[in-house]
Design brief:
Helix content: 40-55%
Distance between the termini: 27 Å
Strand content: 5-15%
CATH architecture: 3-Layer(aba) Sandwich
Shape: globular
Low-confidence stretches: none
Structural class: alpha/beta
CATH class: Alpha Beta
Number of domains: 1
CATH superfamily: Uracil-DNA glycosylase-like domain
Mean pLDDT: 96
Radius of gyration: 16 Å
Order of helices and strands: HHEHHHEHEHHEHH
Number of helices: 10
Number of strands: 4
Strand order of the largest sheet: 2-1-3-4
CATH topology: Uracil-DNA Glycosylase, subunit E
């Protein structure tokens, strides 16, 4: 059994994940010894959980566009790892989905990243990922953290969530697609 499979089994048998395991829902992540980029987002949505494909929605379409990769490359290459802040769909909130569970990433990300020694850049999508990985090094808000993305390179690349709900943010912050997206594409293509 590979180390990644052992970690997956550990996640599935962890008491905090028993409700998912009992329902037959596996943890949704992708890790590989060959990974050079890790994408850290919030948590799988309902559609991702049902299809067992992370970023399998309009947000994923926009993320792939920003990265400059095809859907096929995104899902088949071992160069890109996917480590959401929680590997299970947390459920619905009044507006959007519930946040990832506290303590999940802290427990499982270090074990997985330890097995991926070639990671050059971790793409941090949204405030949960940025709070966990950047801590007090992030700016006063997500917009300023993303605007100052160069401060975190080459190890981290903070991004706004590619959700269609963020259309207004993208319109108010045209610098994102003019300045940040080209750098993201360059990082991805350098590592593919």
């Amino acid at each position: 059994m590979s180390t990644f499979e052992e970690i997956k089994q550990g996640i599935m048998t962890d008491t905090m994940n028993q409700p998912f395991t009992q329902r037959g829902v596996p943890p949704l992540f992708k890790a590989s010894k060959d990974a050079r980029i890790a994408i850290v987002g919030q948590a799988p949505g309902r559609k991702a959980e049902e299809t067992q494909l992370f970023w399998n929605d309009l947000s994923g379409d926009r993320l792939r566009e920003w990265m400059g990769v095809t859907r096929e490359t995104f899902y088949t290459t071992d160069v890109i790892a996917h480590l959401p802040m929680d590997f299970y769909y947390p459920g619905k909130a009044k507006s959007g989905d519930l946040p990832p569970r506290k303590g999940f990433a802290e427990k499982w990300h270090p074990l997985l990243l330890q097995e991926m020694p070639n990671i050059e850049t971790i793409i941090l999508i949204g405030s949960y990922a940025q709070k966990y990985y950047l801590g007090n090094k992030r700016e006063k808000n997500l917009t300023e953290t993303v605007r100052n993305f160069e401060e975190y390179l080459p190890k981290y690349m903070p991004l706004v969530h590619p959700s269609p709900l963020n259309h207004g943010w993208l319109k108010r912050n045209p610098w994102f697609e003019q300045e940040v997206v080209p750098v993201l594409k360059e990082i991805v293509h350098h590592n593919l």
